[in-house]
Specification:
368 residues, alpha+beta, binds zinc ion
């Protein structure tokens, strides 16, 4: 087939992908200038005719490589520039990739036959990834200054929506962009959600935190028994109502019972608000009860759940209206992000067990 495309010989800058028609082989003039600055190389003297080859030669010298062929010099320069951008992104998850590129750089010598690329990349892709991380860092800074207790719903939603570019499932395909997007998402959950939105919801923050897995690792199951959680339970109407219902049902004729004997699979608990609602979604309750002489009860039990952030979409059904801003965001926007982060393996489900032991528990009566 005849190809009439005039652009077939058009040169595009390897870094920014914009067309250019200067004599250089790899970069437009603007990008070349920027590269001198980025790599902290001194500007070429006036008499240097080709500033691009001069850049490549300087990069080679900096790597203690001399008498390289032109091809090797160009290839070395690209790898070296890529490595520089990756270093600037400063993500631990990139360490593996950086190591491979460093190895490839070391393998380029005047004696080497071929240029080996253990890891292949387009410089333009790395450049784009770098720009994404710059934008992301700016947004994180802004989000950190938000007071989530006291924010307008629209503003909050907009802030979070601006972040949606880091939840792009198509970036998962390539190894380098996967690592970068994984890192941004990981930071988002750690800083924005755990350190920001859920700052005053200690249990939810802890559970989400445990759900964030390091690259390639599975989160460990969690057993929780502490004062903070005890207090949450003691304050929860849903929890106290459930205890009342079960104690009245099974403790009428006896001073001692084990719920397991009657409810083999435990009893479902659906919390209606606050920290517990954000933490537990389909929790099951088990407990043993012993009656004291003064009609109080000693209770020992546990609440079991599989923590899964992608189940936040159910939040809206249960939550009371007071918490609408956060609940709304968590159950819509963040839930969608959570689904993507689960695909990436940033967020992983695990089993959580909350243990409790209450002495002299008095059945609580709430006024309607
Ligand atoms: Zn360019």
């Amino acid at each position: 087939m005849e190809n009439n495309d005039n652009n077939i010989n058009e040169k595009r800058c390897l870094l920014c992908n914009k067309p250019y028609n200067y004599k250089y082989k790899m970069f437009g003039r603007g990008c070349l200038d920027n590269l001198y600055r980025l790599l902290e190389l001194s500007k070429p003297p006036k008499f240097i005719w080709n500033k691009e080859t001069y850049l490549c030669t300087q990069i080679a010298w900096r790597n203690h490589k001399f008498f390289l062929s032109k091809n090797k010099k160009y290839s070395l320069a690209q790898k070296y520039i890529a490595l520089n951008y990756l270093n600037r992104m400063n993500y631990e998850f990139l360490d593996d990739i950086k190591e491979k590129i460093t190895k490839d750089i070391n393998n380029i010598s005047v004696f080497s036959r071929n240029i080996v690329s253990t890891i292949s990349f387009e410089l333009n892709d790395i450049y784009k990834l770098f720009n994404y991380t710059q934008k992301f860092n700016e947004l994180v800074k802004e989000l950190q200054s938000i007071d989530w207790e006291d924010i307008d719903e629209k503003i909050a939603k907009n802030f979070i929506k601006n972040m949606s570019f880091i939840f792009d499932i198509t970036k998962k395909i390539d190894l380098i962009s996967y690592a970068v997007f994984y890192s941004m998402q990981y930071t988002f959950w750690q800083v924005v959600v755990i350190g920001g939105m859920l700052k005053d919801k200690k249990l939810s923050a802890r559970l989400l935190s445990n759900s964030l897995s390091l690259l390639g690792k599975k989160p460990e199951d969690l057993t929780i028994q502490d004062k903070v959680t005890d207090e949450l339970l003691m304050k929860s109407r849903v929890f106290n109502d459930k205890l009342k219902e079960l104690i009245e049902k099974y403790g009428k004729e006896t001073d001692m019972f084990d719920l397991k004997d009657y409810e083999k699979d435990g009893v479902l608990l659906k919390f209606e608000g606050g920290d517990l609602l954000y933490s537990l979604h389909k929790a099951t309750l088990f407990f043993k009860a012993i009656k004291n002489e003064d009609n109080t009860w000693n209770l020992e039990g546990e609440i079991n759940d599989t923590y899964d952030f992608t189940e936040f979409k159910d939040l809206k059904e249960y939550a009371d209206n007071k918490e609408s801003v956060l609940t709304d965001i968590l159950s819509t926007l963040l839930n969608n992000f959570g689904v993507i982060s689960s695909e990436y393996g940033v967020i992983k489900p695990y089993d959580v067990k909350i243990k409790f032991k209450f002495s002299n528990y008095k059945i609580k009566l709430y006024e309607e």
